[in-house]
Write a structure and sequence with these properties.
about 240 residues, mainly alpha, two-stranded antiparallel sheet, 11 helices
Length: about 240
């Protein structure tokens, strides 16, 4: 099964650039808009199938469309795009220096600092590869969700043959959840933004600065209520995917 193709490389680079821009752009919000890996998987699947239908087979003896969009191509695209789904911690350092200390290091020096810290992190990851990646016991539960979704999109027919009492397919159930989540987001995101983060304890003494810093939504947030899913998963990731331990 083909993996490294023109489609996988082009779509992977495209989604990587798009994800890096969107993630960093929304990172400065009070409740950041998190782009989850599920959205990346869906975008890669739709764009990949579109390319498999509209691209010519060859141009100048270069194979552009080797056939149906494979599961390995999508997995490679998802791995590439996921690498840009989070902001680097070095960005926070540069931002704090500019906002609070009025210290500007310049764009060129900032880029060098980012590259240096990323290479340092990759070096440490390479050293710990045999301890944290290769052992079979080091599977993170969130990765299983991604594998399940990719497999469902490509092998829905095979999965449907093994179903029990549950008559609804995984694809139908997934799109229903996406539809209801889209409808609900209009309430905390546009119609009634107070649902996103509301601190009723802070209203007891709104003029008390220390009390507002402890209980306020922009402070420690003790006692604050959030009914916006994006506000929940913005900092501590999804409670459904990440185990309590």
């Amino acid at each position: 099964m083909l993996c490294l193709t023109f489609r996988s490389v082009f779509i992977g680079i495209l989604l990587t650039c798009l994800m890096s821009f969107v993630t960093q752009f929304f990172a400065y919000r009070t409740s950041p808009l998190s782009i989850t890996i599920g959205i990346i998987i869906l975008l890669a699947y739709m764009i990949g199938n579109l390319f498999s239908k509209i691209l010519p087979e060859k141009i100048f003896n270069i194979t552009l469309n080797p056939g149906p969009f494979s599961i390995k191509e999508q997995t490679l695209i998802v791995i590439m795009a996921t690498s840009a789904s989070g902001t680097g911690s070095t960005i926070d350092t540069i931002t704090v220096q500019r906002l609070y200390y009025k210290y500007y290091i310049g764009h060129f020096n900032a880029i060098l600092l980012l590259i240096t810290m990323h290479l340092l992190a990759l070096s440490i990851a390479g050293i710990l590869n045999r301890y944290l990646v290769w052992p079979a016991a080091m599977i993170w539960p969130k990765t299983l969700m991604s594998c399940c979704l990719i497999r469902t999109l490509h092998h829905e027919t095979d999965i449907a043959k093994n179903q029990g009492r549950w008559t609804m397919s995984r694809t139908t159930f997934f799109w229903l959840i996406v539809f209801f989540q889209f409808l609900w987001y209009w309430f905390p995101g546009y119609i009634f933004p107070l649902l996103s983060s509301f601190s009723f304890i802070c209203m007891i003494a709104p003029n008390n600065i220390i009390f507002s810093q402890v209980t306020g939504a922009n402070g420690l947030g003790l006692g604050a209520i959030q009914i916006d899913w994006n506000a929940w998963v913005a900092y501590l990731d999804s409670p459904i995917l990440v185990p309590f331990w």
